[in-house]
Amino acid sequence: MSGRNDNTDPGSVDNTRRTFLGTVAVSVGFAGFGLGTVVAKSGPSVDMKDFAVGGRKSTTVEIRPEEVVVKTIKQSPELKERYGDDKIQNIETYERPEPERDDLPQEDTIVETGMWRGFVAKEDEWVTLAESDNADQLMFSPEEKNESDIEVNYPDEHPKYYHNNEDNTFVLSGPINLIGSVQFDDADHCASNIASNGTGSYTWTTSVADATRYALTGLQFQAHESSVASGPLGITGRTHGRLWNSSSQVLIAAHEDNWVPHEAVSYKESEERIDSFMESSFNHYDANNAEDPDGNQLLDHDGEVTLVFET
Q1: How many CB atoms lie within 10 A of CB 26?
Q2: Cα-based distances in Å from 39 to 86, 119, 138, 156
Q3: What pLDDT is stored for residue 285 in this prediction?
């Protein structure tokens, strides 16, 4: 399933991404809302709870013979107060290379509505938080829980979460739940090593069709630099990991996808699956990122991060 996140990225983000097996993702534009930036706070007054927003959410899934389009609109009075517009939207398009085999109807439209709550801010606001006295809400300094025979070297801080870019705001999406050790040259090396060792009735690959997600590394949001998954398409579910370079280590956000609308349904299952066939130290770090700042559990993630070695 070839995926694209049709959002305008800030200039600081490197949006160069590999293509999936030569497939060109379908371009689906949307009207930007021209959101401004709230005046950034400084020092100890910055708190991630300042970024909390909530309201109504609608997701429309249009299943077409050759593609699936997922459009999400989130509305919140807090967005109106902070940025002058009460909504952000996100559109992702997935190609159907073999529609006769993907178990989806030929055509259909699915609409889901409900309430939502999340953490939304501009890049400079997230950076301000990362530099404030409350940086530990967003970043963690890895503390080893388990001893390892292999040398472990890491920078002072890693981001706890990864984000999605929606209308040029960054929305907290999910936790970082694995870290590649200093044995790996970079994210590509780590992804290839995981793919080559993948087991089960899966075709593990680094040629993955996925939408771009971001991690705050080096005090700016970086697009994920590599991917690995138990199948290239994911239209009916898969194990899927995105990887970022972070100083001398590799950050990994792994999850189980469901079918359309292709959302994460488990983090721990993916972490345990990769741990099962890689040389690793399970739950090596305590990242304290099992919940968001409101105390809401991030699916089944337990706040522990597994350290992965070259296998």
Answers
A1: 15
A2: 17, 17, 19, 28
A3: 86
